[in-house]
Amino acid sequence: MPKSTPAFLFNNCGKRPHQGIYSRRRIQNAFYDLNKFGIQAKQATDLCRGDECIVAKPSDGDQIVFEHYRFEREIESGDERVLCRKRVKAESLTRAAATRHRIYRRFFNVNHHFKRQATIRWKSEW
Q: Among positive and negative, which fits the CA dihedral 83, 84, 86, 88?
């Protein structure tokens, strides 16, 4: 996969504060978590060190923040798989601009609402 495209897109429309939650558990650089059971147990299981990941999170007003990370490792903590990273960049766009963006539009449905799934695997044919 070319370095210009992400391996996975992660939906944080619930604004879960991963860094804060896991730093209290002495896990540094957490950027996302997935359950070890149910549907999330089968998601993003083939991440490789260095893969680009993007997390989308609503911000103030109509803004969406897109944070880009390089995956470093996965750590198990209780019932969760914690994804840890090196932060690359972040950018903020309006929802309208994000739904037209070549990559970010994959986070949204036809009504411009966040899709329900936690992870979206990047497809090379996009």
A: positive
CB 75: neighbour CB atoms within 10 A? 17
Q: Rounded to 5 degrees, what are φ and ψ at 40?
A: -70, -20
The predicted model scores a pTM of: 0.91
Tell which residue, 70, 64, 45, has the closest CA to residue 104.
64
- Provide the pLDDT confidence category of residue 1 given band limits of 50, 70 and 90: very low
Give 51's contacts (C-beta < 8 A, 6+ positions apart): 6, 7, 8, 70, 71
pLDDT digits (tens, 9 = 90+) for 12-43: 999 999 999 999 999 999 999 999 999 999 99
Q: Which two tokens stand for residue 4?
A: 């210009």
Q: What is the dihedral of CA 65, 97, 2, 81, to 10 degrees?
A: 30
